[in-house]
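Quick start: read one record
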Amino acid sequence: VQLQASGGGLVQPGGSLTISCVVSGSDFGIRAMAWYRQVPGKQRELVASLASGGNTYYPDTVKGRFTISRDNAKNTAYLQMNSLKPEDTATYYCNTDPPILVWGQGTQVTVSS
């Protein structure tokens, strides 16, 4: 199974961005998927999780601003990010929840004016 995240970039504070992750493999639909982020020198942190049944989880740092979704027909997970802040700057990764797959390269999101 491979994870390919894309869609990152430079965005101004207050802006929006949607990133996506294509997951190879035939059992995408039964996995709980999640987005994580990491900045150099810090531990990777969970920012959004979506169970196969539809339940979601967001930490307080992103709740109300980030939305995770999935398209099982396309084996793709999405993370819509609104009202972005400079502290959201990080490399974003997708994986299962809990993370059991080999990490992909992630996609860089930079929030700066």
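The CA atoms of residues 69 and 98 lie 17 Å apart.
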